[in-house]
Amino acid sequence: MTLEASPFADIDEQPIRSAYLDRREAATYCRVPISTFDSLRRRNQIPHPDAEMGKHMLWKRTTLDEFLEAGGTRDFR
Q1: Are the beta carbons of 58 and 27 closer than 8 angstroms?
Q2: Is residue 10 packed enough to be buried (19+ CB in 10 Å), middle (13-18) or exposed (0-12)?
Q3: pLDDT value for 71
Q4: pLDDT reported for residue 3
Q5: 8 A C-beta contact, residue 30 and residue 37
Q6: Which pLDDT value is given to residue 15?
Q7: pTM, two decimal places
Q8: What is the Cα 12 distance to its own chain's centre?
Q9: What gap in Å lies between CA 28 and CA 30, rounded to an integer?
Q10: Residue range 23-77, pLDDT digits in tens
Q11: Residues contacting residue 31 through CB under 8 Å, at least 6 positions apart
């Protein structure tokens, strides 16, 4: 009996990277605790989500990059 390599071996090893980040991933990306991220979101001190999937808010990395490069909450609004 011989074992053949899976035709999907390369795909299985690569992490799937979504174009959108959920709030937990967005908080990590911004390097703040999720509780801080949620607080900033409730006070409208971070950009609005780029998309929503059901009740889940999603941000693009580019949106967060622009926000952070502009100074984060210091220069937002």
Answers
A1: no
A2: exposed
A3: 87
A4: 58
A5: yes
A6: 57
A7: 0.71
A8: 22
A9: 5
A10: 999 999 999 999 999 999 999 999 999 999 999 999 999 999 999 998 887 755 5
A11: none
Is 23 within 8 Å of 57 (Cβ atoms)? Answer: yes
Evaluated on CA atoms 43, 66, 26, 19, the torsion sign reads positive
Q: What is the 3-state secondary structure (H, E, C) of the chain?
A: CCCCCCCCHHHHHCCCCCCEECHHHHHHHHCCCHHHHHHHHHCCCCCCCCEEECCEEEEEHHHHHHHHHCCHHHCCC
Do residues 74 and 67 lie in contact, with contact meaning Cβ atoms separated by under 8 Å? no
pLDDT of residue 6: 56
Predicted pLDDT of residue 16: 55
